Amino acid sequence: MAMHSDQASPLRKTRFENSKLNAIGVEVLTFGDLMKKVPDERLTIPERVELYLLLMVTSGNLVHTLDFVDYKLPAGSLVVVRPGQVQQWHPTTEAEAQIVLVDPTALPFDAAVSHTRELELLTLFDWQPQTQLSHELQTKLEQVTDRLESDIAGFDGSELEISLIRHELLALLFRLACFQRDLVQNQTTRTAGYEKYKLFVELLEQHYRNEHALQFYARRLGYSTSTLSRACLEIEGYSAKVVIDHRIALEGKRMLAHSGASVAEIAYYLGFSEATNFIKFFKRIVQLTPTEFRDTRSGR
Fold first, then answer.
1. Where do the structural domains in the chain lie, given as residue ranges?
2. Residue 63 zone, left/alpha/beta (φ > 0; ψ -120 to 50; rest)
3. pLDDT of 179-233, one tens digit each?
């Protein structure tokens, strides 16, 4: 199982780590394999993933929790998990799925200093977390993942095979990118502010812990605060400041629900000088105090 847990962090982190596969940064396994390799008591603990994860249900019905949403997944469902999200597995013997784990380093263009054309074409930012595949597309994806799994099993450690496997991974991701692109085009037409919104949210993901002011993001991107707010209103229906607040609150909810960190520790982690400031902020956004929210998640 090419996943490693970092218990020292405020929220348990899981990243790709496997001495046999680290050179590739890719692993394919089934949901049944996962349950055999990882004890239920560890599998069911929420975790923040530091990798990309594709989950394709091939039979039966699964449930997968991603950032407080329980996705009910019949056969043909696809779940896409991105680095930084919090997920939770729900073990069952009544379903099967294919799982592809991808270390970000397996995508050499996925780096802050190197946004290449390939990354732009994949448009990972746009991918919906849960979708339903057609039977035809599911069959094609199963064929690709079967080939990928076979080549990983026969991996000889050579640079040539590393390149082969990573190219097969890209073929899988580009096929999914075409599928996701068609979903976006069928559901909505991108507005004029889309690219500005995309740049803003990408920058926000890097700095939300320590930078809470809209002016910081506007200055870094070279836009006015009103331009960013118009872009956010077009895409999300909220101002840019509200988008910032929601991102900070989401991280607070993740940590309150899935870690043992105190409210004061969470406040400090999220860049608040005083715990009381975080409590007021959280209650304004979530309509509950941090303690009340934690109690609702623990079922008290």
1. 4-187, 194-298
2. beta
3. 887 776 554 456 678 889 989 999 999 999 999 999 999 999 999 999 999 999 9
DSSP 189: P
What CATH number should be reported for the domain whose range is 4-187?
2.60.120
Terminal-residue alpha carbon distance, the chain? 34
Q: Work out the angle at residue 99's Cα, subtended by the Cα atoms of residues 97 and 100, and round it to the nearest 5 degrees.
A: 155
Residue (of 52, 39, 37) closest to 1 by Cα position:
37
Provide the H-helix boundaries in the chain: 31-37, 40-43, 117-122, 135-153, 159-187, 194-207, 214-221, 225-235, 240-258, 263-269, 275-286, 290-298
Fold (CATH) for 194-298 = Arc Repressor Mutant, subunit A (1.10.10)
At 1-38, the pLDDT tens digits run: 555 544 434 567 788 888 889 899 999 999 999 999 88
What is d(CA 141, CA 171) in angstroms, rounded to the nearest whole number?
10
Structure-token pair, residue 46: 């929420």
CB 13 within 8 A of CB 6: yes
pTM of the entire structure?
Answer: 0.80
